[in-house]
Protein backbone atom coordinates (compact mmCIF):
# COMPACT_ATOMS: atom_id res chain seq x y z
CA UNK A 1 0.00 0.00 0.00
CA UNK A 2 1.28 3.48 -0.86
CA UNK A 3 1.88 5.92 1.96
CA UNK A 4 -0.70 8.73 2.12
CA UNK A 5 0.23 11.95 0.36
CA UNK A 6 1.19 14.59 2.95
CA UNK A 7 -1.36 17.37 3.30
CA UNK A 8 0.09 20.69 4.48
CA UNK A 9 -3.30 21.68 5.86
CA UNK A 10 -3.17 18.77 8.28
CA UNK A 11 0.46 19.49 9.09
CA UNK A 12 -0.55 23.04 10.02
CA UNK A 13 -2.72 21.72 12.86
CA UNK A 14 0.30 20.41 14.77
CA UNK A 15 0.71 22.11 18.12
CA UNK A 16 -2.72 23.76 18.03
CA UNK A 17 -5.62 22.89 20.36
CA UNK A 18 -8.13 20.45 18.91
CA UNK A 19 -10.99 18.17 19.93
CA UNK A 20 -12.72 15.04 18.70
CA UNK A 21 -16.39 15.73 17.98
CA UNK A 22 -18.56 12.59 17.92
CA UNK A 23 -21.98 12.96 16.31
CA UNK A 24 -25.10 10.87 17.00
CA UNK A 25 -23.71 7.38 17.52
CA UNK A 26 -27.10 6.33 18.88
CA UNK A 27 -29.28 3.26 18.50
CA UNK A 28 -31.65 4.90 16.02
CA UNK A 29 -28.75 5.32 13.59
CA UNK A 30 -26.34 2.53 14.58
CA UNK A 31 -28.15 -0.47 16.07
CA UNK A 32 -29.01 -3.09 13.40
CA UNK A 33 -32.40 -3.58 15.08
CA UNK A 34 -33.26 -0.03 14.00
CA UNK A 35 -31.83 -0.42 10.49
CA UNK A 36 -34.02 -3.14 9.03
CA UNK A 37 -34.88 -0.79 6.14
CA UNK A 38 -31.19 -0.48 5.21
CA UNK A 39 -29.56 -2.89 2.76
CA UNK A 40 -26.64 -5.09 3.89
CA UNK A 41 -23.98 -2.80 2.42
CA UNK A 42 -25.36 0.13 4.36
CA UNK A 43 -25.56 -1.82 7.62
CA UNK A 44 -21.99 -3.06 7.17
CA UNK A 45 -20.78 0.48 6.54
CA UNK A 46 -22.49 1.74 9.69
CA UNK A 47 -21.04 -1.08 11.80
CA UNK A 48 -17.54 -0.42 10.48
CA UNK A 49 -17.88 3.30 11.18
CA UNK A 50 -18.97 2.66 14.77
CA UNK A 51 -15.88 0.53 15.31
CA UNK A 52 -13.70 3.28 13.89
CA UNK A 53 -15.38 5.87 16.11
CA UNK A 54 -14.42 3.69 19.05
CA UNK A 55 -10.81 3.65 17.86
CA UNK A 56 -10.77 7.43 17.49
CA UNK A 57 -12.23 7.89 20.97
CA UNK A 58 -9.68 5.50 22.45
CA UNK A 59 -6.85 7.36 20.74
CA UNK A 60 -8.14 10.71 21.98
CA UNK A 61 -8.51 9.54 25.55
CA UNK A 62 -5.14 7.84 25.67
CA UNK A 63 -3.51 11.03 24.41
CA UNK A 64 -5.37 13.39 26.73
CA UNK A 65 -7.26 14.86 23.78
CA UNK A 66 -10.72 16.31 24.45
CA UNK A 67 -13.81 14.38 23.30
CA UNK A 68 -17.13 16.18 22.81
CA UNK A 69 -20.34 14.27 22.11
CA UNK A 70 -23.37 15.48 20.15
CA UNK A 71 -26.62 13.64 20.81
CA UNK A 72 -29.92 14.04 18.99
CA UNK A 73 -32.71 14.39 21.55
CA UNK A 74 -36.23 14.59 20.14
CA UNK A 75 -38.98 15.69 22.50
CA UNK A 76 -42.34 14.08 21.83
CA UNK A 77 -44.13 17.25 22.91
CA UNK A 78 -42.16 19.58 20.63
CA UNK A 79 -42.12 18.59 16.95
CA UNK A 80 -39.82 20.12 14.35
CA UNK A 81 -42.42 21.50 11.89
CA UNK A 82 -40.05 22.00 8.95
CA UNK A 83 -38.80 18.42 9.20
CA UNK A 84 -42.33 17.05 9.37
CA UNK A 85 -43.31 19.14 6.34
CA UNK A 86 -40.31 17.86 4.38
CA UNK A 87 -41.37 14.28 5.12
CA UNK A 88 -44.94 14.94 4.03
CA UNK A 89 -46.50 14.95 7.50
CA UNK A 90 -49.43 17.27 8.07
CA UNK A 91 -50.28 19.09 11.30
CA UNK A 92 -52.94 16.51 12.12
CA UNK A 93 -50.79 13.44 11.48
CA UNK A 94 -49.74 11.51 14.59
CA UNK A 95 -46.25 12.38 15.77
CA UNK A 96 -43.82 11.05 16.74
CA UNK A 97 -44.24 7.99 14.58
CA UNK A 98 -42.70 4.68 15.60
CA UNK A 99 -39.79 5.36 13.23
CA UNK A 100 -38.96 8.83 14.58
CA UNK A 101 -35.31 8.67 15.69
CA UNK A 102 -33.88 9.41 19.11
CA UNK A 103 -37.09 10.27 20.94
CA UNK A 104 -36.72 10.89 24.66
CA UNK A 105 -37.73 7.86 26.70
CA UNK A 106 -37.13 5.36 23.86
CA UNK A 107 -34.26 2.98 23.18
CA UNK A 108 -33.37 4.93 20.05
CA UNK A 109 -31.82 7.80 21.98
CA UNK A 110 -29.24 5.59 23.72
CA UNK A 111 -25.58 5.51 22.73
CA UNK A 112 -24.57 2.46 20.73
CA UNK A 113 -21.19 0.74 20.69
CA UNK A 114 -19.42 3.72 22.22
CA UNK A 115 -20.34 6.50 24.60
CA UNK A 116 -19.07 9.35 26.76
CA UNK A 117 -16.88 8.83 29.78
CA UNK A 118 -17.37 10.71 33.01
CA UNK A 119 -16.40 14.34 32.56
CA UNK A 120 -16.68 14.41 28.78
CA UNK A 121 -18.95 17.09 27.35
CA UNK A 122 -22.33 15.96 25.99
CA UNK A 123 -24.33 18.41 23.89
CA UNK A 124 -28.00 17.65 23.23
CA UNK A 125 -29.29 18.98 19.93
CA UNK A 126 -32.74 19.23 18.43
CA UNK A 127 -31.83 19.41 14.74
CA UNK A 128 -29.12 18.18 12.39
CA UNK A 129 -26.69 20.96 13.32
CA UNK A 130 -24.84 20.42 16.59
CA UNK A 131 -24.35 24.17 16.98
CA UNK A 132 -27.95 25.31 16.44
CA UNK A 133 -29.51 26.32 19.75
CA UNK A 134 -26.87 24.49 21.80
CA UNK A 135 -23.82 25.20 23.93
CA UNK A 136 -21.42 23.59 21.47
CA UNK A 137 -19.72 26.80 20.32
CA UNK A 138 -19.08 27.76 23.94
CA UNK A 139 -17.92 24.24 24.82
CA UNK A 140 -15.35 24.40 22.02
CA UNK A 141 -14.07 27.85 22.93
CA UNK A 142 -10.28 27.83 22.90
CA UNK A 143 -10.25 25.00 20.34
CA UNK A 144 -8.88 25.82 16.90
CA UNK A 145 -9.84 22.61 15.08
CA UNK A 146 -12.11 19.59 15.38
CA UNK A 147 -11.98 16.07 14.03
CA UNK A 148 -15.56 15.00 13.29
CA UNK A 149 -16.80 11.41 13.37
CA UNK A 150 -20.20 9.76 13.65
CA UNK A 151 -23.56 9.33 11.97
CA UNK A 152 -24.82 9.98 9.47
CA UNK A 153 -22.37 11.45 6.98
CA UNK A 154 -25.05 12.90 4.73
CA UNK A 155 -27.12 14.45 7.52
CA UNK A 156 -25.92 15.42 10.99
CA UNK A 157 -22.21 14.99 10.26
CA UNK A 158 -22.55 17.12 7.12
CA UNK A 159 -24.51 19.85 8.91
CA UNK A 160 -22.40 19.88 12.08
CA UNK A 161 -19.06 19.83 10.28
CA UNK A 162 -20.18 22.63 7.98
CA UNK A 163 -21.40 24.65 10.93
CA UNK A 164 -18.11 24.12 12.76
CA UNK A 165 -16.35 25.64 9.76
CA UNK A 166 -18.79 28.56 9.75
CA UNK A 167 -18.02 29.08 13.44
CA UNK A 168 -14.35 29.55 12.57
CA UNK A 169 -13.00 26.09 13.37
CA UNK A 170 -10.70 24.15 11.09
CA UNK A 171 -12.47 20.88 10.38
CA UNK A 172 -11.16 17.40 9.63
CA UNK A 173 -13.75 14.75 8.83
CA UNK A 174 -12.65 11.20 9.67
CA UNK A 175 -14.18 9.47 6.67
CA UNK A 176 -13.78 5.91 7.90
CA UNK A 177 -15.44 6.82 11.22
CA UNK A 178 -18.56 8.11 9.46
CA UNK A 179 -21.26 6.35 7.48
CA UNK A 180 -24.61 6.86 5.81
CA UNK A 181 -27.39 4.35 5.29
CA UNK A 182 -26.68 4.65 1.56
CA UNK A 183 -22.91 4.43 0.91
CA UNK A 184 -23.36 6.56 -2.21
CA UNK A 185 -24.69 9.37 -0.04
CA UNK A 186 -21.68 8.97 2.26
CA UNK A 187 -19.34 9.46 -0.69
CA UNK A 188 -21.33 12.44 -1.99
CA UNK A 189 -21.35 14.13 1.41
CA UNK A 190 -17.59 13.70 1.74
CA UNK A 191 -17.12 15.34 -1.66
CA UNK A 192 -19.21 18.32 -0.57
CA UNK A 193 -17.40 18.61 2.76
CA UNK A 194 -13.99 18.26 1.15
CA UNK A 195 -14.83 20.98 -1.35
CA UNK A 196 -16.35 23.55 0.96
CA UNK A 197 -15.64 23.09 4.66
CA UNK A 198 -13.26 20.29 5.69
CA UNK A 199 -10.19 18.22 5.02
CA UNK A 200 -11.24 14.60 4.64
CA UNK A 201 -8.89 12.21 6.42
CA UNK A 202 -9.14 9.07 8.54
CA UNK A 203 -8.71 7.59 12.00
CA UNK A 204 -5.13 6.51 11.35
CA UNK A 205 -4.14 10.13 10.71
CA UNK A 206 -6.04 11.30 13.80
CA UNK A 207 -4.43 8.72 16.07
CA UNK A 208 -1.01 9.72 14.76
CA UNK A 209 -1.75 13.40 15.31
CA UNK A 210 -2.80 12.73 18.89
CA UNK A 211 0.34 10.68 19.54
CA UNK A 212 2.52 13.41 18.07
CA UNK A 213 0.80 16.06 20.18
CA UNK A 214 1.37 14.00 23.30
CA UNK A 215 5.02 13.46 22.46
CA UNK A 216 5.47 17.18 21.90
CA UNK A 217 4.16 17.92 25.38
CA UNK A 218 6.65 15.61 27.11
Automatic annotation (TrEMBL):
CDD domains per the UniProt record, alphabetical: cysteine_hydrolases (cd00431)
Protein's UniProt keywords contain Hydrolase: yes
Single GO MF annotation: hydrolase activity
Sequence ranges assigned to domain Isochorismatase-like in this UniProt record: 19-203
Gene3D superfamilies xref list: Isochorismatase-like
Key words of the record: Hydrolase
Record InterPro entries: Isochorismatase-like_dom, Isochorismatase-like_hydrls, Isochorismatase-like_sf
Pfam families per UniProt: Isochorismatase (PF00857)
PANTHER family reported in the protein's UniProt record: PEROXYUREIDOACRYLATE/UREIDOACRYLATE AMIDOHYDROLASE-RELATED (PTHR43540)
Protein name in UniProt: Nicotinamidase-related amidase
Native organism: Kineococcus rhizosphaerae
Top-level taxonomy: Bacteria, Bacillati, Actinomycetota, Actinomycetes, Kineosporiales
Amino acid sequence: MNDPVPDPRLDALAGTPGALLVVDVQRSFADPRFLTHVDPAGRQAVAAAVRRVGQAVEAARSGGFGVVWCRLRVRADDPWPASNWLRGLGPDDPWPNAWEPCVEGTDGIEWYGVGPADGEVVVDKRTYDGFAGTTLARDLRGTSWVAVAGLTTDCCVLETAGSAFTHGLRVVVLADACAAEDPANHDAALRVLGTHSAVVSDVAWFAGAVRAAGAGQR
